[in-house]
């Protein structure tokens, strides 16, 4: 049944066809959304509470800053190191071999590397690999008095000992660990020394998840963010990757701290080369952008298609393919045009078929008329 005079008739559709088309569109959209989003922790394409899409949006929309997400350490080689900040958030795998060498060279050329880690080894391996003194303790950091919603969400305050620590007052942490600044730690910004950017209160402690406060003998302040010169560059260590996730990004003053890390830089690398959570469609786009050969093949194909269209060959190819896909024989009785004793003219036959089947395109009408003409020529003459 058609909706006479309505939208469906205008598109040549009946209700079953329209429903099928709608379902197909919904399916394609669902697949497209799934291919362009992620549910992985710390993924820049995860818009849920545990993703970092807000950080990615801030970086890519910042004025005078070129924000780039990379899945390959090749980008470290082409980056203008002394104007670039690289964020590595809770890597799943350690940087080794050529990957590590590229990061080392990036820092040595004047780049700034920011490592966010709490419990896993890959962050510490990277800090050690590039030659930084700071290390992540790896035990859960809690505060018995200065916290947000629970003791597992301690509040760290700025030390004011570095220009970066002057742009924020506090950091709101969530399942963080302390940073051991090493033997080079100083309260101030000493030459060649590790500088503490933020500390917890004097009522903090480290321990396992089930550590009882009554069993803790040592309550004191712990560093949670440090900065130090390494080679010609800079390394920042932060003991809480969760300050980058959407649920914590807006907490005081996490966003301000993160923006301050790249405020004076021309570009930011969101290094996701050793993490999961890049959706298939995004991965395809990133691969295409980074592959001159793929770009050349697509460009060449586009030029070839345009050339075929300009010369009329494309339409001939499409018409030939459509003809090959359709049944070879056409019965005049299926069309509903009985062969008259006095032969109708070609124009009259075309008019009849177009009136009977208004949803047929011109090519199909022409093929049917040609089939009818061949049938007439094969039959007896009246």
Using the 3D structure, state the CATH architecture of the largest domain: 3-Layer(aba) Sandwich
Mean pLDDT: 78
What share of residues are in beta strands? 15-25%
| Largest pleated sheet | 10 strands, mixed
Q: Provide the helix percentage.
A: 25-40%
How does the overall form come out from the CA principal axes?
Answer: elongated
SS content category: alpha/beta
Number of helices: 14
At the third CATH level, what is the topology name of the largest domain? Rossmann fold
Using only CA atoms, what is the Rg? 33 Å
Order of helices and strands: HHHEHEHEHEEEEEEEEEEHHEHHHHHH
Count up the domains: 3
Number of strands: 14
Low-confidence stretches: 1-5, 26-37, 186-191, 279-286
Please give the CATH class of the largest domain. Answer: Alpha Beta
Amino-to-carboxy terminus distance: 41 Å
General description of the model:
The chain has 14 helices and 14 strands. With 382 residues, the protein is α/β, with parallel strands linked by helices. Strand 12 and strand 13 form a beta hairpin. The chain starts with 6 loop residues before the first helix and ends with a helix. Mean pLDDT is 78; it is low at 1-5, 26-37, 186-191 and 279-286.
Summarize the helices and strands and which ones pair or pack.
Layout: H1 7-10, H2 15-36, H3 53-61, E1 66-70, H4 74-78, E2 84-89, H5 97-108, E3 112-116, H6 121-130, E4 135-136, E5 140-143, E6 155-158, E7 170-172, E8 179-180, E9 185-186, E10 194-199, E11 204-207, E12 223-230, E13 233-238, H7 246-249, H8 254-262, E14 267-271, H9 280-289, H10 292-311, H11 313-325, H12 332-335, H13 346-356, H14 362-378
């Amino acid at each position: 049944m058609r909706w006479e005079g309505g939208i469906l008739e205008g598109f040549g559709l009946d209700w079953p066809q329209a429903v099928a088309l709608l379902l197909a569109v919904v399916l394609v959209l669902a697949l497209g959304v799934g291919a362009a989003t992620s549910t992985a922790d710390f993924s820049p394409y995860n818009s849920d509470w545990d993703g970092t899409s807000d950080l990615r949006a801030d970086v890519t929309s910042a004025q005078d800053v070129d924000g780039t997400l990379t899945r390959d350490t090749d980008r470290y080689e082409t980056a203008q190191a002394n104007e670039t900040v690289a964020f590595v958030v809770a890597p799943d795998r350690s940087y080794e071999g050529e990957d590590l060498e590229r990061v080392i060279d990036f820092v040595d050329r004047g780049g700034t590397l920011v490592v966010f880690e709490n419990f896993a080894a890959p962050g510490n391996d990277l800090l050690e690999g590039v030659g930084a003194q700071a290390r992540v303790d790896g035990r859960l950091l809690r505060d018995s008095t200065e916290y947000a919603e629970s003791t597992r969400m301690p509040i760290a305050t700025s030390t004011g000992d570095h220009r970066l620590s002057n742009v924020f007052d506090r950091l709101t942490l969530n399942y963080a660990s302390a940073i051991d600044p090493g033997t080079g730690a100083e309260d101030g910004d000493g030459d060649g020394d590790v500088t503490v950017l933020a500390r917890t209160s004097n009522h903090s402690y480290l321990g396992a998840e089930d550590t009882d406060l009554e069993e803790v003998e040592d309550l004191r302040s712990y560093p949670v963010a440090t900065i130090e010169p390494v080679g010609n560059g800079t390394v920042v260590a932060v003991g809480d990757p969760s300050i980058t996730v959407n649920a914590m990004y807006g907490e005081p003053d996490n966003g301000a701290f993160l923006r301050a890390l790249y405020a004076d830089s021309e570009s930011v690398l969101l290094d996701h080369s050793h993490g999961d959570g890049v959706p298939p469609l995004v991965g395809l786009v990133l691969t295409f952008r980074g592959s001159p050969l793929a770009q050349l093949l697509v460009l060449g194909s586009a030029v070839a298609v345009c050339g075929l269209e300009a010369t009329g060959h494309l339409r001939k190819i499409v018409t030939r393919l459509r003809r090959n896909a359709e049944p070879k024989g056409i019965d005049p009785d299926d069309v509903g045009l009985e062969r008259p004793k006095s032969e109708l003219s070609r124009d009259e036959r075309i008019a009849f078929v177009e009136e009977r089947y208004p949803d047929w395109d011109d090519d199909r009408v022409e093929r049917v008329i040609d089939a009818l003409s061949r049938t007439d020529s094969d039959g007896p003459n009246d």
